[in-house]
Design goal:
The chain is an alpha+beta fold. The chain has 3 helices and 6 strands, in the order αβαβββββα. The protein has one domain (14-102): TATA-Binding Protein (2-Layer Sandwich). A 6-stranded antiparallel β-sheet has the order 1-6-5-4-3-2, covered by helices on one side.
C-alpha cells in the first residue's frame, strides 16, 4: 500500500485531510444551518470556489482541487468540518474558515 501512496503522490502531489468536530448548543442548530446554507465563500484559502455540493451537507470545491465540507452529525449536537488540500498548514486554515462560515 505504501508503494501505491508513493505513486499517487508522485503523480498528484501531496494531499492532506482532516476533520474536526465542533459541539454547539442544540438551540443554535437552526441559526448555524442557516449560516452554512447561505455561505458562498469566493475562495478557500485563496483558491476560487468553483462549485458547491449539497449532498450530505455543504461541500465547497476550490479550483485547485481542495475542498471544505460542513455537515451536522445525525446523532449528537456536533458540527463536522472536513477538508482536503495541498498542505498541513492549509488544512488548519481551511478548517478555521469552515468554523467561521458556520459561526461555530
Amino acid at each position: 500500500m505504501s508503494g501505491v501512496l508513493d505513486y499517487l503522490r508522485a503523480k498528484l502531489g501531496d494531499w492532506h485531510y482532516l476533520r474536526v468536530d465542533v459541539r454547539y448548543p442544540p438551540s443554535e442548530r437552526e441559526a448555524i444551518a442557516a449560516r452554512v446554507a447561505a455561505a458562498r465563500p469566493p475562495s478557500l484559502d485563496g483558491s476560487p470556489v468553483s462549485n458547491v455540493g449539497t449532498r450530505d451537507g455543504y461541500k465547497f470545491y476550490a479550483e485547485d482541487g481542495s475542498w471544505l465540507m460542513i455537515r451536522f452529525s445525525g446523532t449528537e449536537p456536533l458540527l463536522r468540518i472536513y477538508t482536503e488540500t495541498t498542505s498541513r498548514e492549509r488544512v488548519q486554515r481551511l478548517l478555521q474558515q469552515g468554523r467561521e462560515l458556520a459561526g461555530a
